Structure formats: structure tokens, C-alpha cells
Amino acid sequence: MDMGIEAKVDAGVLSIRISGRFDFGVHNEFREATKLADSGVKLIEVDLNGTDYLDSSALGMLLVLRDKMAGDKSAIRIKNSRTEVKKILEIANFDKLFTLS
Questions:
Q1: How many domains are contained in the chain?
Q2: What range(s) does the STAS domain occupy (predicted)?
Q3: What are the strands, taking DSSP E only, across the chain?
Q4: Are 23 and 55 in contact (CB under 8 A)?
Q5: Given this model, what pLDDT does residue 2 score?
Q6: Higher model confidence: residue 71 or residue 16?
Q7: How far apart are CA 19 and CA 5, in angstroms?
Q8: Can you tell me the mean pLDDT for 72-83?
Q9: Distance between alpha carbon 7 and the CA centroid of its chain, in Å?
């Protein structure tokens, strides 16, 4: 299984897929991926299907994304979270800040 971050922009949607551990180790990769949001992106989808762990630095990185989209809850969709990951997001009240699907 490959680790890390894949990102692409298609028709105004920035898709970010995170595989393995979502923690400070992928901070630089994640920052590079978020730079793609500067080019007229209307929606960011974060696919956590391959994510088996996330920590507080990952939560911080997601909050940076939210700032990029001017705090618009509907502009960021976090999808395909595994149960354990979704639980962490819900404990952090991220279901109030983002669209979790």
C-alpha cells in the first residue's frame, strides 16, 4: 500500500487522497496539495479511504483547508473515512466544520 498524498484538480474540484498515516510526516506534501486550491477551486474533497491514522496535526491541516475556502462548510467534503478515523473527526467536532460523507 502506498503512503502519502495524491492531489488533482478537475472541473473546479480539488481531490486530495491521503493514504496511510495522516500526521505531521505528510505536512509538506499536504501543503503542496493545498496550493492547487488557489486556482479557482470551488470544492475540496478529502478522501480518507486509505487513511488508517490521523492525529492533531492532521486536524490542523484540515483547518487550514477550511481557511482557504473562507470557512465555507459545504466547500470541503471529507469522505470515505473509516470508522476509527470518523470517530476522531466527530470527537473534534469536525462534523460541524466540514461535510463528512
A1: 1
A2: 3-101
A3: 4-10, 13-22, 43-47, 51-54, 76-79, 99-100
A4: yes
A5: 59
A6: 16
A7: 6
A8: 94
A9: 10
Residue 72's domain comprises 4-100
Cα dihedral 49, 59, 44, 48, rounded to 10, equals 0
Residue 3 has pLDDT above 90, yes or no: no
Query: Is pTM, for the whole model, over 0.85?
Result: yes
Tell me the three cell numbers of residue 41: 477551486
| Strand, helix or coil for residue 88 | helix
Q: Which three cell numbers stand for residue 46?
A: 478529502
Cell of 32: 503542496
Q: Report helix, strand or coil for 99.
A: strand
Which residues are CB-neighbours of 80 under 8 A, at least 6 positions away?
A: 47, 48, 49, 101
CATH number assigned to the domain comprising residue 62: 3.30.750.24
